[in-house]
Structures are given as C-alpha cells and as structure tokens.
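To illustrate the input format used throughout this study, we show a single complete record. The first block contains the structure-token representation of the backbone; no residue identities are included at this stage. The design step must infer an amino acid for every position from geometry alone.
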C-alpha cells in the first residue's frame, strides 16, 4: 500500500508526466514506433536495391553497354522489395496514430505511396485515420 508521503510526491510529478511525451503513457507509441521503424527499413532496402542493381543495369543499357534483359531481370528482382515496402506503408496507415504529427505523417506517407486509390483497403486506411482524428480531437 502507498503511504501518504509517496502519494503526494506522485501527485506533484503528475503534471510533468502528463506534459512530457516520453513520460506520458500513450498505449499507441510502441506499435507506432515499431510500424514506422519497419517501414523505414523496408524503404531503405528498396532504395538500396534500386541504387545498386536496377539503376546500374538501366544506365548500362542506355549507354549501350548492357542488355535490356538485365534491366528487366533487375526490376523483377526488385519487386519483392517494393511489395514489402508497400505492405509496411499499409501497416503504418492501419496503426493508430499516437499524436497529430503521426496523423500528418500517415497522410503524407499514404499520398506519397499512392495508397489512397479508392480500393477497399484504402477505404479502411482512411477510416483508421478518421478514427485517429476523432480520438485525438476528443
């Protein structure tokens, strides 16, 4: 059981805890951080493969030093990276946003990745973002 002195000391720290994002209890931060981290890793892997394999094959072909088949092969090998990134973006968009900055990030990410294409999955993403807006503005 908590004694009176510990309870009062805890009350004195409550305003600090509630106003400090790193201290404030937000159940959405761990899931959000994990989803954003996975998207960043997927994006980095996708961009690395593009820079190291696809672009060199394309440049070699354009310079007359490489066959077009090498470009096609590189692009086909890149497909799993693009799919993994698209899935990571979808996961971020379906993860509850912990704050308003995250809502803006979701909108930017969805627009940049053309995720809001009118499909059933994009409708679900937009409904999740709408739920974020309602929750954060309550």
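Output of the design step:
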């Amino acid at each position: 059981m908590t004694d009176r002195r510990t309870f009062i000391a805890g009350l004195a720290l409550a305003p600090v805890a509630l106003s400090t994002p790193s201290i404030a209890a937000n159940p959405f931060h761990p899931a959000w951080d994990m989803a954003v981290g996975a998207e960043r890793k997927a994006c980095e892997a996708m961009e690395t493969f593009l820079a190291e394999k696809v672009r060199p094959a394309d440049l070699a072909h354009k310079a007359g030093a490489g066959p077009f088949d090498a470009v096609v092969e590189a692009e086909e090998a890149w497909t799993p990276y693009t799919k993994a990134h698209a899935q990571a973006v979808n996961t971020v968009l379906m993860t509850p946003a912990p704050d308003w900055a995250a809502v803006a990030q979701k909108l930017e990410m969805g627009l940049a990745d053309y995720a809001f294409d009118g499909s059933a999955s994009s409708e679900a993403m937009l409904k999740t973002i709408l739920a974020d807006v309602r929750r954060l503005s309550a």
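Structural context for interpreting the output: The chain has five helices and no strands. Confidence is low (pLDDT under 50) at residues 1-23.
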